[in-house]
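Researcher: I need the complex structure. Ligand is heme C. Inputs:
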Amino acid sequence: MKYVFLLVLLCIGGAAGLMGAIIAYRWVHDMTQTPRIVPGERVFSMPAGVVPRGAEAVIPREQRDVAAKVPNPVKASPESIALGRARFGTFCVPCHGPEAKGGVTGPVATKFIPPPDLTNGDLQRQRTDGYWHSYIVVGGAVMPAYGEALSSQEAWHVVNYLRSLGPGGAAARTATRAAKP
Ligand code: HEC
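Model: Output:
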């Protein structure tokens, strides 16, 4: 009788151990351990100096001085500014605030690094359109890159919108307000 009891105990112990091992196995082999492709990470290296068809060269963050000299190909029409404002509302407001005033006007900025006031006249004069376009496409010191979310063209629209918020942009701003109630 004693041996039967021990045998049953052994069976139960073995089954429990097996189930524990399954849980432990699944715990360490979850989704985060599987091979995955991170946005911006290439699975193969591209030959140097090539550009995909139908695309344009992305100037890396380290060459901001080169990017700063690229002229803005998009005219700051009310339509362009309205589109830029829409994209800004989607991607930038969480950090930069609804009026691009920076500081902690954006809900994320209260938990992150407060961004500068983009409507500031001195900053607006100091930066070229190309500089800000590069900031949007490849990111800043801590600001994330938006080259995957926005096309280069859309980034220029956003730059046009930001310009409309600066000194001298008031006329363009009223024009968009009228165009987009
Ligand atoms: C996660 C928060 C965050 C988001 C989202 C974000 N930014 Fe920024 N941005 C920052 C911070 C922080 C700085 C200042 C520090 C730095 O340079 O990285 C900054 C700086 C800037 C600058 C100033 C560059 C300069 O020094 O002249 C511009 C322009 C800018 N952002 C535009 C945008 C636009 C346009 C978007 C939306 C496409 C955007 N940002 C989205 C956090 C953000």
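Model: Summary of the prediction. Residues 41 and 70 are 26 Å apart (CA to CA).
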